[in-house]
Design a protein that fits this description.
Strand content: 25-35%
Structural class: alpha+beta
Radius of gyration: 14 Å
Oligomer: single chain
Number of strands: 11
Order of helices and strands: EEEHEEHEEEHEEEH
Shape: globular
Number of helices: 4
Length: about 130
């Protein structure tokens, strides 16, 4: 994997290595060594969560205030209507790695690789959440 990795949001959440922060390089090794794990540890609250419901769990890390939801992970304020907050949470769980001149996206829940960001987000919806 290339050394050029970036988070889609300013803070990345990695349930594979229990890291939460801005240093994306800390999760690149966890992605490379990823193997399916039935239970993951939430880096925010420490709860052990079933891998298939990890995104649903992460939704709990938002505070509702009027018409906005504040992300408890990075402090971003998002419109409380629609799926803006859920999409934002999912972006904490995806890392982009530049490889051979093109971006590849990785799911931090299971380590699966995707060619587009939307494919990675769709994967999170279908595979790791109970929506």
């Amino acid at each position: 994997m290339s050394a050029v990795a970036r988070a889609l949001t300013k803070i990345v959440v990695c349930p594979l290595c229990d890291y939460m922060g801005e240093d994306v390089s800390k999760v690149v090794d966890a992605i490379a060594k990823a193997s399916p794990r039935p239970r993951l540890k939430c880096p925010k609250c420490g709860a052990e969560v079933d891998a298939n419901s990890f995104v649903t769990h992460m939704r709990r890390h938002g505070r509702v205030g009027g018409k906005t939801i504040t992300c408890d992970i990075c402090g971003a304020k998002l419109n409380g209507e629609g799926g803006a907050f859920l999409r934002h949470i999912k972006e904490h769980l995806i890392v982009s790695v530049r490889r051979n001149g093109m971006d590849v996206y990785y799911c931090l829940v299971c380590g699966q690789e995707f060619i587009t960001k939307n494919s990675a987000i769709t994967h999170l919806i279908k595979r790791h959440s109970l929506e």
